Amino acid sequence: MNDDTTSADPAPPPALAARLRAFNDWMSRDLGGGPRPWKLAWIINFQKGGTVVFLGALMLLYGNTTTAAWIYLALHGSYGIVWLIKDLSFPDPAWQGRATLAGGFVAFGAVLAWYWAFGWLLIASGVTPDYPLPEAAWYALCISLCVIGCVIMVAADAQKYYTLRLRPGLITDGMFSRVRHPNYLGEMMIYGSFALMVWHWLPFVVLAVIWSALFAVNMIMKEASLSRHPGWAAYRARTGWLLPRLVRPRDPD
To answer: Whole-model pTM?
Structure first.
């Protein structure tokens, strides 16, 4: 399951990724200095858990009771509740650090609030988007993508949390046997389903920025850190970043 825990020096991450990670951490954790009144987890959980209330209020405000609005409420709102259950059961240590007052506002306003804009675009319009497929087929696609993404995300985070509590090191089985970042894959499937439901250019732009400037940077930095573990090179060669390799390398004779 895990390789030997004897560690070597990690490989240095790409300079650009390291600079972006430092900038992201400064903006969301250290901006302005001073007291650190809240954990990042509290800010994230407020947005995740508040989504169902926010979307419901938008539906009342705009009088939008279309099928698309109800399905979006169910998808995005339920995901927020799933996230809260996950965080209560196995919290991610990455979000337990405290942030300055300004850093917390930036974390919410510059990233998390944009996710709420997805629902506003759909609900405020008052009409169902002109989807590329018949509505029923499109809804089935979005629902399936969201449900499968939630399963992948929760299963990967649970495996990581409980495995590392027992034995640190590489996790190379289960959800991580063919993909190195299944938790990010699940998140991307979930938010991709929301963007498809809204079917507007803005959510796709927002996701492209967040996935490039945050998700990709975090994955690159994580891999640089994991490179210190024995067996990393072989594990990296036989797995995909986000999707399984179509052709896996042959074992040496």
So the answer is: 0.92
